[in-house]
Write a structure and sequence with these properties.
The protein has about 475 residues and is mostly helical. About 80% of the residues lie in helices and about 0% in strands.
Length: about 475
């Protein structure tokens, strides 16, 4: 059994490190667009987005304290004997969440690299992204030590772009941007505030990561106290950083002329500010490094989850194979690379982020339902909150999830209208169809296995008679 060696500080830093990074750079343009580049709405979206994740983190914390094991919700579903839900959870996690997370970072990184070399052909940019994935995947398959060391290095490097933006805002920014954009009347702000729903939904892409504490629950000292404290402290820090970044963007450049769908959103803002080309190049290099770091982390963590699902026989056993020399789950990495490549070829960055938000919201519904069941049915469940408080938290998560799902749906509609392209909606419906298909497929798989076993038994009886 793993020793409990991580205290409050280390646990909090793990959550912060897992959250801050490339996701904020990708989703910021979408949040700004849905908030109509209104400073008040932009700041409010990031603040509310952070507050909305707290109730779910508290439920995750209580359940994790009771069952400090790898696999989190997937293991909880197994304990509750919800085999169909466990299969569906793994289905969504692998086919949608893991693949879209890797694909979004890959597209953003390849687009930025392409912009440095003035490459505009979208298919060449996609090819560059797939090539990057293959390189990172090969590193994970063949170079164990490099992968481990790079995790620590990238954790420190990912702070550089954030510090860069803040410094640029202090030196070159102006609060006149805030005053000019914020001067619109309050009635207009109130009427347009319904756009906060998709704006808040898009912040979920940037806030995902705080829950990473649950993955090391078995190694945390005094988990009953430190898991909840670490999550709350990490959330406060992340909200503060994101609000500072939002404020920095406002005083750097608030413009409806920026392309909200572009993965080079921040760079375009800096160009409008007419920064020296050397500073913009330095920022681009920082961001590319961060994107590489995120890809590196995603392949590490998500491949282990795929491996876990294969071990539990909810994925084909072939994906549980590892290289003996470094214990790398190479078939899981290959699977993630193929699935991510499909998304890269299939759609654009802003749509892929929307798929991620929809999928993670569905997974959160499943997670809190199984947490409720475990709390009320298993005697080994350790209650941190009394029943009334837990009920309020549970209800808050349900409301938050419904708001986030509504926001994601509205964002798809706005994308369709803004681009006058209904194919965007159809692609989203196809992905949602794949997402929902996992549940009935479990029963089809179970029926198929029953048929095969029944046929084998009949043959065995026939052979004995002969």
């Amino acid at each position: 059994m793993l020793k409990r060696k991580y205290g409050l500080l280390t646990t909090t830093m793990v959550a912060i490190s897992a959250t801050l990074g490339s996701s904020i750079l990708i989703s910021f343009g979408q949040v700004a667009f849905y908030a109509k580049f209104n400073p008040i709405l932009m700041l409010l979206a990031w603040a509310l987005g952070g507050l909305l994740i707290i109730p779910s983190l508290l439920i995750f914390a209580e359940t994790t304290v009771s069952y400090p094991e790898n696999g989190t919700t997937y293991n909880w579903l197994k304990k509750a004997n919800y085999k169909a839900f466990a299969f569906w959870f793994g289905w969504i996690l692998v086919l949608i969440v893991s693949a879209t997370a890797i694909a979004s970072i890959t597209i953003a990184c390849s687009s930025l690299i392409a912009s440095l070399f003035n490459i505009t052909n979208p298919w060449i940019i996609k090819a560059i992204g797939i090539g990057l994935m293959l390189v990172i995947g090969l590193f994970h398959i063949f170079l164990k030590q490099l992968v481990i060391v790079s995790q620590t290095i990238f954790t420190f490097l990912k702070l550089l772009p954030i510090l860069f933006i803040i410094v640029i805002a202090i030196i070159y920014g102006s609060f006149n941007n805030f005053k000019n954009q914020g001067g619109s009347n309050l009635t207009e702000t109130y009427v347009s505030s319904y756009l906060l729903l998709p704006a808040i939904a898009m912040t979920m892409f940037a806030y995902s990561g705080v829950e990473s504490v649950t993955y090391i629950a078995g190694e945390i000292k005094e988990p009953k106290k430190n898991i909840i404290r670490a999550k709350i402290l990490a959330t406060i820090v992340v909200i503060a950083v994101y609000l500072i970044l939002a404020l920095s963007f406002i005083i750097i450049n608030v413009s409806h002329g920026l392309d909200w769908m572009s993965s080079t959103f921040w760079q375009d803002a800096f160009k409008n500010l007419k920064l020296p080309s050397g500073l913009i190049l330095a920022f681009n290099i920082f961001v590319i490094i961060i994107f590489f770091g995120s890809l590196n982390s995603f392949f590490l963590y998500h491949s282990r989850m795929v491996h876990k699902l294969a071990e539990e026989k909810d994925l084909a056993p072939i994906f549980a194979k590892v290289r003996k020399s470094n214990e790398s789950p190479y078939m899981a990495i290959i699977l993630l690379t193929i699935l991510s490549a499909i998304y890269i070829l299939w759609d654009q960055l802003y749509s892929i982020v929307t798929y991620f938000v929809i999928a993670t919201t569905i997974l959160q519904f499943i997670s809190i339902i199984v947490a409720w069941q475990l709390r009320h049915k298993r005697k080994d469940y350790q209650k941190i909150f009394n029943d009334f408080v837990f009920g309020i938290i549970f209800l808050s998560v349900l409301i938050a999830d419904m708001l986030l799902l509504a926001g994601a749906i509205i964002s798809v509609y706005i994308s369709v209208i803004n681009n006058n392209d209904w194919w965007i909606l159809w692609k989203c419906l196809i992905v949602c169809g794949v997402l929902l298909a996992g549940y009935p497929i479990y029963y089809l798989r179970t029926f198929w296995r029953w048929l095969r076993n029944d046929e084998s038994k009949k043959k065995e009886i026939k052979n004995k008679k002969e």
